[in-house]
Predict the 3D structure of the following.
Amino acid sequence: MAHLSLKKIEKVYANGFKAVHGVDLEVRDGEFMVFVGPSGCAKSTLLRMIAGLESITGGELHIGSKKVNELAPKQRGIAMVFQNYALYPHMTVYENLAFGLKLAGTPKTEVAQRVRHAAQLLEMEHLLERYPKQLSGGQAQRVAVGRAIVKKPEVFLFDEPLSNLDAKLRASMRVRLTELHRNLRESGQPATVVYVTHDQVEAMTMGERICVLKEGVIQQVDTPTALYDHPANAFVASFIGSPEMNIHEAQLQPQGEGLAVVLGGQVLPLPAAKAQPLRSRSGAVKFGLRPEHVTALPREGSLAVPCSLRFVEHMGSEVFVHFCIGETAMTARVPADQLGELAGKTRGAAHVFHLQLERCHLFDAETGANLLL
Amino acid sequence: MTSSTETLVLNRERGRPWLRYLVLGLVALVMLYPLLWLVGASFKSNGEIFSEIGFWPSRFDFSAYAKGWKTSTEYSFATYFLNSFLITIPRIIVTVISCVLVAYAFARFEFWGKKLLFSVMVGTMMLPLIVLRLPQYLLFRELGWLDSYLPLIVPSAFATDTFFVFMLVQFLRGIPRDMEEAAQIDGCNALQLLWHIIVPLLKPAIISVIVFQFIWTMNDFMGPLIYLASVEKYPVSLALKMSIGATEEVEWANVIAISVVALIPSVTVFFMAQKHFIEGASSSGIKG
């Protein structure tokens, strides 16, 4: 296994379009790193550059201690799992797994042993004689992962491997892959993984660290909880978390000793801990508050704000309540058993929601940078 | 998907099936009649061929096959069939190799002048072959290849059957690249990629190339006529023409009988390959 280091990595296409803007990133030995971002953020391009399927037009890429910029994919010690699995249709599962090893001239007995081992690990020994067209989506996915495992690569690359599966299978494969990573680590064969996804749930649940990308620029690299609790900017804040964080234009103004935010015509006094670092500031900001920090019932330190109800979405154990403060649309995430009198209310009805302002975020109105970090 | 198939099935169920089969049967009969007549006429005498309209012969006499096979020359049709295969099989081999290589380059590599070269290649498809005959003849005469099979085989080794190249390129363009990228990561170089991945995926298209090239070469008359002088080197197409002698009276049954025999290889090859035509990229390992 090896660490991966990207230094000022750039990608400029022949037509002059710059897809990746000087990315600096260290992926530690044995770490599960997730690249996440909306479509077009160059996360797949970056992965393909690591794999050697796209040329690197600037910067340096190291796998372990080797600089691999100019090396062919096979010399980089990587294995990749594709979104479409990309199994060879004319080969059986066994041959699919063994193909890379055969090309490398691995002795037959070792090939057989490694293929069996991978098949055991992924519980697919009974599939070895089948052809890809005889496999279900989930099975094909496992074969694709197996093909990566047999090679014992330095770095595993996953390119949206679960996006072709249905929701249920995706959830179970997510757990399987995470477990596989843990198992490999415990068995003394730790795997460095770079995993690309556009699904923030996958990113949050699988990644040990997450790299959030937007338009070829890294926005933030951190652990899932750190990203969630301390987003570097408004983009990360809105991208991570479901339902999305409420982020709105607001005005910062002095209020007595401290500061207050004006949102939808309501003056919301900030707690001292939040106001402290912003002492000298006033004017336009972006105010952010996660839906779970808006409650239907009062809590300690929460601020009661009169609102008008728009509609509710029942998710089972919890309810997403959409409402307005003045003209500003907000969402609250309320446990189903704490709905209280909200349950019977109709569209447009007035209701008092409780905002936990000590959990709010404030971002620069121009740059979107988090003002409280 | 399901709903559209259902409507399709419903439409098919509507109307009278017997009427449909009747019409289809009649059209098929009209199309196939000349072939049936050909087979029937191989048993007839000259008089019967020109006086009867029906295809059913008055007697089944296989002597025309025996006579036709022997021919009026010193060689039997066994020689001519062998000659045909001596031209066709090497030609198919070089065609497949050269066309796959060229198509692979056009479909998968970026190189200077690719677009221009491709349009020139497609342009040559529009060129009537007849305009090339004279310069080609002069060229092969200079090379001393006249009265050999080389002028019939060697040009195909340079992917001059542009229709096949075009067909293969189009087929390749329809195959997603993921498998090739996976193979690259597995350690394939460009040629290994071609051999281990592309060729198996191209199999249905390659079989089409083989079938078409087989039929066209077997039926080619002009090429052998121009380049071959010795009767011992004649392929079936020329030998057939030769059996319609200019001087003596023609025994049409013999000619027709041997025409029927000459059809057999092409028809056999076609039916053997038929199931591969329908098999296509649909069986690939990519799910989308």
Notes: Chain A touches chain B through 29 residues (CB under 8 Å). DSSP finds nine helices and 20 strands in chain A.
